[in-house]
Amino acid sequence: MIRTETDGPLRVVTLDRPDRRNALDPDGLDALSAAVEQATEPVVYLHGAGEAFCAGADLSVVSELDREEAVAFAEHGQQVARTLETYDGVVVAGIDGAARGGGVELALACDIRVGTPEATLSESGVSLGLFGAWGGTARLSRIVGETVAMDISLSGRVLSGTEAREVGLLSRVVEEPRAVATEIAANDAGALRTIKQRIRDDDSVETQETRAAAAFGNLIADSNLESVSGE
């Protein structure tokens, strides 16, 4: 259900259940979490096998849950999303084809979302009486703003890759999203971690500036700038 491979500084994590459009059941969530937790590379690239990125939660599982089990399943998905969000490096979601419901939520937990011209995204759960319970409602609003988040979540409409890029849900639309992950992975691993931490810091401006100065000092102390400047 989950495949991993290492390509230099890049860990490739593949959602590999194409017959179910890479929908995730509890075992799939556990496998995805483990794949990310075990990674040590500066950049993780998450994508789906076949014609979809991820259809979200496996509805054949969801339909059998009672209330308590549904709460546990939602919390399970939230934990996996946090694992992606807090990875000690950069996580790039490559969306080629459909991302629906929980698939969008997992992508929202990644640092960068890159789509192909064939990418489509939708918080489609509303038509089934559901919503993004893996943390997607909060992350979507933070990323695209409340007005757009309301529209996407309440309508359940499908966004093309182009529209998703226009509203900020995708950072780029390219033919090969993995190439973007490879491009990022070519940079300094320490700088990548530091930039992610600084951008995600939501403390006061003064506190952010103090932390930024300290982080910059740490990077300088560990750098090889003298060899670069001497070239």
From TrEMBL:
SUPFAM superfamilies reported in the protein's UniProt record: ClpP/crotonase (SSF52096)
Recorded superkingdom: Archaea
InterPro entries, per database record: ClpP/crotonase-like_dom_sf, Enoyl-CoA_hyd/isom_CS, Enoyl-CoA_hydra/iso
Entry-linked Gene3D superfamilies: 2-enoyl-CoA Hydratase, Chain A, domain 1 (3.90.226.10)
PANTHER family linked to this entry: ENOYL-COA HYDRATASE, IP11341P-RELATED
Family to which the UniProt record says this protein belongs: Belongs to the enoyl-CoA hydratase/isomerase family.
Entry protein name: Enoyl-CoA hydratase/isomerase family protein
